[in-house]
Amino acid sequence: MRRFTLLFVLVIGCAAWFGTQKLGAQEPAAEKPAAASEGENEPSAAWKWANFAILAIALGYGAAKALPPFFRSRTESIQKGISEAQQMKRDAEKRAADMEARLKTLGAEIEKFRAEAHGEMEQEGARIRQETARQIERLQQQAEQEIEAAGKTARRELKQYAAKLALDLAEQRVRDHLDPATETALVDGFVRDLQRQESKN
User: Which pTM value belongs to this model?
Assistant: First the structure.
């Protein structure tokens, strides 16, 4: 930064010096002393060239001191930017290659997913079929038990009904064949049996 300041000061000084020289050249010839000879003008021109040479050397020296580090830092900055851009390009190319590889394997992954889904569906279907078969078997056993229980109940009721019918029929037949004398004899015999049992007790 100091070098740039020095260079700037030198440039300003050079510009000021050239400005004063121009103003001196533009002064009217009447104001110059009449006694000046041609020999006095020539050393003035040489002095100007000497000043210019000194200024040019100073500017060149300042530029030679200040510009190489500036250009080096600028070159390093540009190279760093190029390196970062190249790294970003490599990263982008890598991501693009990864995406292309994924797209290429996407079909295989989809097919694999379909196969897995198909296998899972078959397993689920087999499980549902087994569960349904167990449910049907349990329902069949329950129905058989209920049918057997209902059959037992129906057979028992049928036996009871048949026994009741048989008793009713027997009673009807006995009543049909039983006259008052036989009925009296049966009642007397029943009473005698009761009396014998009481006497034994």
Answer: 0.32
